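The instructor's notes for this session suggest beginning with a concrete chain rather than abstract definitions. Hand out the sequence below and ask the class to guess, before any prediction is shown, which regions might be ordered.
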Amino acid sequence: MPAPRSRPHNPHGRAGARRDSQELSREEHKELTRQALLRSALRLLSRNSFDSISLREVTREAGITPTAFYRHFDDMEELGLVLVEESFGSLRGMLREARSNPDIFNDVIRRSVEVLVAHVRSHEAHMRFIARERHGGVRRIRRAIAREVDLVTTELALDLAVFPVVGKWGIEDRRLLADLIVELMVGVAADMVDAEPGEHAAVAQRSERQLRLIMVGAANWRAGYLGRDRQ
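After discussion, reveal the predicted structure:
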């Protein structure tokens, strides 16, 4: 008769297993509460500016006590910074995919517009927050948005090097072009959140034409063009 197999030694026993389970449960509950606060802030921001909503309003909307807020964020500005990070995180990835997918290389403009429109539709609350707070009254939020826009622009300037004509440019000229494209796209996102659903197609078509016009100019651009004209 075989000897019974011994169980792995657990120094904490059953009590330790219960504690591990409770720890996991607490962490899950903490994350759910954190997400509830972020969603509540976005709901309030759909009709208010960030500097006009209070911590008490956010916690009341989320159904928690104001004291519990500080287990997740130091203050309202930190919550706003997290919203900025969330708003740009997925958008950067989507736009990067649109630029790098070889299947859409020949029509990257149309694909980029489609990606932006889809993102605005699925993240309307985040995009409304960015459009409003980019020039809003809270300095830390404005600066955070500016940094994210700058990061998108820098990534685009680097990615443009793989495209014909533009790839021969220096980084400064590619940065100029990236600035124009990103500013247009940010403006398109703002137009999308303010437009009625039936107007989204017209906004997308106009932005695609504007991008193509920019690229027509880019095709005729000469490196250092302005510098030589001024001499």
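Then share the key points. Residues 116 and 207 are 10 Å apart (CA to CA). The chain has a mean pLDDT of 84.
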